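Record type: monomer structure entry
Structure origin: computed from sequence
Chain ID: A
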Amino acid sequence: MNDHPSLNKSNLRMLTGLLFRLLPVQILLAAVGAVNGLVSSYFASNFVGVDAMSAVGLYSPVNMLMQAISYILVGGSVILCGEYMGKNRRDGMQGVFKLNIMLCLLIGAGFTVIYIILAISDLTGFITRDPVIRPLFNRYLLGQAAGLIPMLLGNSFASFLSLENKGKVTIKASLIFIAVNIFLNWLFVYILKLNELGLALAASLGMWVFTGVQFLFFISGKSNFSFCFKDLAWGESVKMVRIGLPGALTYVYQTARGLIVNNLMETYIGSVAISAFATSDYVMRIFWAVPTGMIAVSRMMISVAAGEEDRQTLADVMRVMFARFIPLQCLISAGIMLCAVPFTRIFYHDPAAAVFGMTVAGLRILPLCMPFSIICMHFTCYAQVSGKQLLVHLLSILDGVVCVAAFTALLIKALGINSVYIANVLNGIVTTITVILYSWIRRKQFPRNMEELMVIPDDFGTPEDERMDLSLRSMEEVMSVSESVQSFCLSRGIDARRSNLAGLAMEEMAGNIIDHGFTKDKRPNSVDIRVVHKDDDVILRIKDDCVPFDPGERLKMTSDENIADDPMKNIGIRMVYKIARDVQYQNVLGLNVLTLKI
């Protein structure tokens, strides 16, 4: 029941502001690995040679496997934490954090040993059979082994910092990492002539710095998470993997896709094609940081909305994706295509060389697939959270390996390396059509709105007759909202006393937010309110996008001496805590969320 027609627009406006406020940090985080690849590509192509660039390109599928493992841990942890946030369970969030860190350490150590054995024993024949390239690849793999543990930890730390709304720590760590990585590449490759080993060591040591800067925050005492590894709930690891695995399957499939496509290029075109594709791919990864950041912030919001069973916010995340994210990505893609030649000149200086033309072609075709990928990533994430495993696996296998590998195999004899680029675009078209067909088949009709396209179950969330949603933007609306709350409670059979108390509590807290919170920053603010009648409880949830404010902490600061000196001090908060049976506050991704039970 929505008494205010502007509610949906208010919720969408607040959500849009939140997503774009979180987006820069997530883009920068995603760009860290991309900058690492770009710097490695620059030093490889300019100071080591085209063969070294092939070794870097051959590592891409191997790196994708590690990214898959990281995605399982990060994706599973973020979604679990989001659900615990929605249920206001801080103990659950702490348990997920501890378990995530322990798994990162154990898995990272295990793969470090595997990398070292493969490199030293020359067991990498399944990656490349080229006798010139393989020794270079082995040395590169050995250097990368040193950075596996910090890579897993660093990605996880960044996600937990985002949940705490401490993205500035990640920004600081990212900027330091970029500077350190450039310096170490200059030292190891240009000065010490360590070639492929130097390229990899620079990246690995840079990741230790990136992770270390974030680690300092967690041990500073300012974090809500702590490194206490007693009583680890190992059973949660199964749930974490089960949640994170479907979304990570794309990376697993991309590992297989990379091996297949690299083999096709090596067989039909030669190692020069691998160098060109790797170069265009590493340039693209800088810009892939944008859609990667988009899905990172959307994943957080989708998981919280699922925990709160908030179907409106779930649908609004997708609306923001279509209305804001995709147009922004289209502009970025157009810019990449226009700058294809200048970007290529950074790495190769002879326009007559085959590798030059192949790289330019990649930068003119590959950007076309990016808007489609945003759609695929968002629907994969939503399906992952909502338990639509068929859709998750279908999109993962199509996007991960089937489409690109199949289209490349069909077209490579006729189109050469362009077949790889075109296959990525065709892949995006196929996955987008798959999303629409899935909805059409499940609902037995063509989707007419966002909720139908998402196939949100009709019984998801609190039924409309058991809830009331309101939105406030000014003090003048507070009294009418208080009256609306009382009327809703009375209509649900709540006694007059509790109905009046619910309205009074809402009036005090909402009025306090508008009176104080709206004056703390210069941007337009709003307050979204939900009233729910459930199991004879009246539940009031007040959500605002003002500066963080915990009424419980303010109440603790009000001592008996303060009250004696000023009986009116924080009287509104004190009254609400006496009225309510339970009061819970949390700051969720930069939003204040206060939940009262009357």
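Annotation 1: The chain is about 75% helix and 5% strand.
Annotation 2: The mean pLDDT is 85.
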